Amino acid sequence: MIKGILFDKDGTLIEFNSLWVESTYEMIHTLVKEYANTDYAQKCEEIANLIGLEGHQVREDSILASGTSEQMSATIATVLHADQQQVHQKINTFLYEETVRNSNNIKAIGDIRKLFEKLKQDNFTIGIVTADNYDITDYTLRYLGIREHVDFIGTASNYERKPNIEAMQAFCNACHLEKNEVIHVGDSVVDMEFSRHGRLGVGVLSGVGTEDTLRKYTPYIIENVHDLFDQNDKFIFEGK
């Protein structure tokens, strides 16, 4: 019986591009301007490509799609011949401040608050597992008005990044669940690989992953998280 649901954040609960694409370009330009002495445009383009930006689209297999800020900082520091720890700190600070400053760009995919209220009414335990950092994640959940409904937050700040099992095990331990009682909902290949630690994975088409790619990992593909309930307001995995 399914008792717990772990959600990815970007692309699953909130629109990915509206929050991160413009901010990431601004971050790249800021760092290149600070560290590079020549070839600014070339270095900006190189970094953007390496972390997964193609114009205003994000490659589904990229660092930006499902990697951590630490991975991003390693890539950027290499291109700019800069100290990785210093770059990592600058990235974390920039992204948090940018999230707060442009919180109007945090756009929920549908009425997430209503969905989470419904899940809690049906006695589901809810967790968030994301490659993002804790402070950005906590701020985002509070901005969306759903923090009170979330029983567990697993981020790259305190657990090994997906698809490592650590966050799944921590969720189960903290909320007294078995792994076969937990499903994971996400939009990327990394999410689907992480889902294998639980009962099943649900791929959503609201983020970076395509249906063809996600279907290689799970038969359960939905348009967005709201399709977890059918037209009769019934949980689609009831009885599974």
From TrEMBL:
Source organism of the structure: Oceanobacillus zhaokaii
Keywords assigned by UniProt, alphabetized: Hydrolase, Magnesium
Keyword Hydrolase in annotation: yes
NCBIfam families to which the protein is assigned, alphabetical: HAD-SF-IA-v1
SUPFAM superfamilies, alphabetized: HAD-like (SSF56784)
Protein name: HAD family hydrolase
Keyword Cytoplasm: no
Gene Ontology annotations of biological process type: DNA repair
